[in-house]
Amino acid sequence: MQARNGDAVHSITNWQVNGSATEGRKMVRDFSKLMLRAYNAEADYAVRSMRPHRLASLVDRLDKSRATVARLGATMQIRISESYHRLRVRELELTADYLAKQEEEKERRRELRERQREEEKLQREIERERARLAKEQAHYRSALQRLRAASEGGAVDEAEVAQLEQQLAELEAAMAAVDAREANIRAGYVYVISNIGAFGESIVKIGLTRRLEPMDRVNELGDASVPFRFDVHALIFSEDAVGLERTLHQEFDDRRVNRVNLRREFFYVRPAEVREALQRFAGQHLLQFREEAEAPEWRASGGRSQ
């Protein structure tokens, strides 16, 4: 709108050509259009090539373009108006904000899909575990029935009966634990892992998984996207793994590797520091902690740090 209204460019108003004010105004108007076109070409390029991390550099480049217009048009006092320049800078800011929100939404959807896949894997694990426990229960119940049937009218091997009943009781407890695990969506394992070959010695990942076999999740993280497998420093089961993970993230929040995407759970922290925090927050849940990373593949490959 400002460009059409003539407010985008300011210039001298009393310029003459060969003594003609009309010719002078035409020359100033043509040069003003040319300068505005050059400035807008730079602004349009900035919009097209915008990435959120490039905002400051592109705004600086547009500032310099405006300064160049003022320098080249100094004779006729041609310059891009401050109000029009602010509008184009605002356009860059809004474009950067839109792209950032778009990236956040993509990451949110990716995280949601990943969470759904994890829940589906957990459900399959629970179903397999229930089937295994049910099969064992059927086996021991059958054995107990056969033992009692064989001992009718005779002496009963009380020790063997007691052993089978004990095994059945343990299986009942295990089945109840699986049910409780399925019902408690906050229960799971908090893991502390590192990958010296990929990230160096002072970076750890602190995450959680609800899987019954937490190492399955750790092994998945060490797939083809990183050159070496992750080393596990700690696996802590907690009835409130969600809360424990959040507490650890808050403890090391100022040392996040990625300060923009908080779903990336890497921190500039050494394992020993995490152990000290876990001793305060996890208490009796911290049964074992390995401070040194074995990193066998990395060491066998020469162990070259960045």
Automatic annotation (TrEMBL):
Protein name per the record: DUF4041 domain-containing protein
Ranges of residues in domain Bacteriophage T5 Orf172 DNA-binding: 198-281
Lineage: Bacteria, Bacillati, Actinomycetota, Actinomycetes, Kitasatosporales
Residues covered by region (Disordered): 103-123
InterPro entries: Phage_T5_Orf172_DNA-bd (IPR018306), SNIPE (IPR025280)
Organism in which the protein naturally occurs: Streptomyces humicola
